[in-house]
Write a structure and sequence with these properties.
Length: 148
């Protein structure tokens, strides 16, 4: 994976045009350092976040869920929201919020990109999910390109 300075620049450029409240596809995003094959003493930390105000301990239940690989049998939480996975793909999965107060609903896309987990949160249904996936793919492609 590219060096941290490159990742940070990519994140800042990507987040400024994809995360926010007015017309951007995502309402929040987190980039978490995560290496499932690394030593257990290396705890995952939030590398970057935009549109959220979460601390590492807020994400511990979510990271435990990922480690248990219980994607189809359990719900997971991020902050006060509970999510249910709707499908599973090789390096990513989408989920819908089951306790959303938004009329159109909310969802999340979680993607592993190298030693990072990207958590992208959006409001809305199918159209919003499609736009969120485009934004997530864009960052994943840019990060992978930096690796070559």
């Amino acid at each position: 994976m590219a060096d941290w300075t490159s990742i940070r620049r990519l994140w800042e450029k990507w987040a400024s045009s994809n995360v926010g409240s007015s017309g951007e596809p995502l309402k929040g995003a987190l980039l978490i350092n995560y290496d499932p094959n690394g030593p257990s003493r290396l705890l995952p930390i939030i590398a970057e976040q935009e549109g959220t105000d979460l601390k590492a301990f807020d994400l511990q239940p979510f990271l435990d869920y990922i480690k248990r690989n219980a994607l189809q049998t359990e719900f997971f939480s991020i902050g006060s929201n509970q999510y249910m996975v709707t499908s599973i793909h090789e390096h990513w999965f989408p989920a819908r919020c089951i306790n959303s107060s938004k009329s159109g609903g909310e969802g999340a896309i979680i993607m592993q990109i190298g030693n990072y987990l990207l958590v992208a949160i959006y409001e809305g249904s199918l159209g919003a999910a499609s736009q969120a996936m485009l934004a997530v793919d864009k960052l994943a492609w840019q990060m992978a390109r930096r690796n070559h």
